[in-house]
Design a protein that fits this description.
Structural class: alpha/beta
Bound molecules: glutamine
Radius of gyration: 25 Å
Strand content: 15-25%
Largest sheet: 9 strands, mixed
Helix content: 25-40%
Oligomer: single chain
Number of strands: 22
Distance between the termini: 56 Å
Shape: globular
């Protein structure tokens, strides 16, 4: 295949239907047929990126290798397909407008009145095709955030309309809607879907494929009705029923021939249906795993999506260890010396979650002390690692005022400190240490035995660092700095070798764990937690 083809994924009726999962599944299925694909997300909000958003607004902020703070859907894209996304895979209205306004100031449009159409829509069209034009992708899948009918998404939809017109068969629109079940009437209702498609049609877009989200199975009559009312072929009306795992979705889509419908519509040859072997093996393991491993997530956000990648990494690791992960959120703001034993009872291991600001950090420290003194497998991630370092300083090194500069600017024992380069930064957005950096591991460490190689590369998202002035003192007292950045000497991993599993990483390993390539640290952490449980 020579020319890049474009698949757009839009949503209607309500939000949270799982456009990200559908986009990822389409990517997965095309990839399994040997196509080179990428997936990108266009979000209609005005923030430049979600980096400054509270997780309660949009869930976790996902970070790409090249250091872009993005929507959590990019995490799905990577976990499903194993591709690596970059800053070009994530766009917001804010970034589009900024690019246009910058051009206007530079004088690129001299003499012209700058308008949504054509200037904003042209910029959107350019960005949609950027990855396709630069790299040799067979398919570029573009997910449009929000729902059809939102004021914000109108310029994106107009850009899609134009692209569909210009590209003909090389562009296709998959529209995701919802078919509610009315209990009182005992009926599934297709009217919202019809309205949503009408809304799209009124903008000038005829969807090619409809994916109907539903809690109950849709029979052929319903599918036929939707097809007829919405001008869509019957084999292009696919249902996405609630399934036990999001990873069942690609298989369900394949069974209904969604990938063949896409290929047919886009004029591509339809070969044999790929068996999805390793994927099915993973699903088999997922279904067969009955024994549970209990992991406590110590953090401050009582929201599934806030620690999305960590949850997925733990679950994947449990599956590969033939166990089912039972993840319990433990609110660090409520932890005290008095209740900690009870709060952590029954957990085979704990994760100290990342975060910003001082809310809930004393609870994290309390949990770490208890876990360290009782040898509970503990995994500290980013702020979690920093809290491990602080707890050790307070309770082992004897510096009761030890803290991070982030929490207390004046503390004498700033075992976690601000980096020199970060000191004069006033802009909050996109200015942290972001993206992948090398880390060299000590050969006699647990971390090295887990990774089995050095150097490794992991993704970062933080402003503060271990203060190397204290390194010797830590080492003498039993906490080792076993991973370091080869250029800067910044500490990337600490561990306490005397304990079963006590590792803190300044980076975020969860961004690199995928379904077919689970992360070694999570695999080994879960394995140890399972062994710990048996004892
Ligand atoms: N707040 C800490 C820092 O900026 C940790 C950030 C995080 O956990 N991602 O260094």
């Amino acid at each position: 295949m020579t020319e890049t083809k474009y698949i757009f994924v839009t949503g209607g009726v309500v939000s949270s239907l799982g456009k990200g999962i559908i986009s990822s599944s389409i990517g997965k299925l095309l990839q399994a047929r040997g196509y080179n694909i990428t997936i990108q997300k266009f979000d209609p909000y005005i923030n430049i990126d979600p980096g400054t958003l509270n997780p309660y607004e949009h869930g976790e902020c996902y970070v790409t290798v090249d250091g872009m703070e993005t929507d959590l859907d990019l995490g799905h894209y990577e976990r499903f397909t194993g591709i690596q996304t970059t800053r070009a895979n994530s766009l917001t209205t804010g970034r589009i407008y900024k690019a246009v306004i910058d051009k206007e100031r530079r004088g690129d449009y001299l003499g012209k009145t700058i308008q949504v159409i054509p200037h904003i829509t042209d910029e959107i069209k350019r960005r949609v095709q950027l990855l396709g034009n630069k790299n040799h992708y067979d398919f570029v899948i573009t997910e449009i955030g929000g729902t059809v009918g939102d004021i914000e998404s109108t310029p994106f939809l107009e850009a899609i309309r134009q692209l569909k017109w210009e590209l003909g068969k090389k562009a296709l629109c998959v529209h995701l809607t919802y078919v509610p079940y009315l209990k009182a009437a005992q009926e599934l209702k297709t009217k919202p879907t019809q309205h949503s498609v009408k809304e799209l049609q009124s903008i000038g877009i005829q969807p090619d494929i409809l994916v109907l989200r539903t809690e109950k199975h849709l029979n052929d009559n319903i599918r036929r009705k939707v097809a007829a009312f919405c001008n869509v072929d019957i084999d292009c009306v696919v249902q996405s029923e609630d399934l036990p795992s999001i990873y069942d979705v690609p298989v369900a889509m394949q069974t209904q021939g969604m990938d063949t419908a896409i290929l047919r519509k886009m004029g591509e040859p339809i070969g044999d249906t790929p068996p999805l072997g390793p994927w099915r093996t993973f699903l088999d393991k997922l279904k067969k795993a009955k024994s549970e491993v209990h992991i406590g997530l110590v953090g401050k956000y009582d929201l599934q999506d806030a620690y999305k990648s960590i949850r997925e990494s733990l679950s994947q690791a449990a599956t590969y260890n033939d166990h089912k992960a039972v993840l319990t959120y433990i609110n660090s703001e409520k932890l005290t010396k008095e209740n900690i034993a009870e709060q952590l009872s029954g957990q085979d291991g704990i994760v100290i979650c990342p975060g910003f600001g001082d809310r809930g950090i004393e609870g994290k420290i309390t949990a770490i002390q208890y876990a360290r003194e009782n040898d509970i497998p503990t995994f500290g991630i980013c702020l979690g690692m920093q809290m491990m370092v602080i707890e050790f300083a307070r309770n082992v090194l004897g510096y009761s005022d030890a803290n991070s500069r982030e929490m207390n600017e004046k503390t004498e024992h700033n075992v976690i400190d601000i980096m020199e380069e970060q000191k004069n930064i006033t802009n909050m957005g996109g200015t942290m240490r972001l993206g992948a950096y090398d880390c060299v591991l000590e050969k006699d460490s647990l971390s090295y035995s887990i990774y089995g190689e050095t150097p490794i590369k992991e993704r970062h998202r933080h402003r503060y660092e271990f203060n190397n002035m204290y390194e010797k003192e830590y080492e003498k007292n039993g906490m080792k700095c076993v991973g370091k950045n080869p250029e800067s000497g910044l500490v990337e991993i600490v561990e306490i070798p005397a304990l079963k599993w006590f590792i803190g990483t300044q980076f975020h390993p969860e961004y690199q764990s995928t379904v077919l390539n689970p992360h070694p640290l999570f695999l080994n952490f879960i394995k140890t937690a399972i062994e710990n449980k048996k004892k």
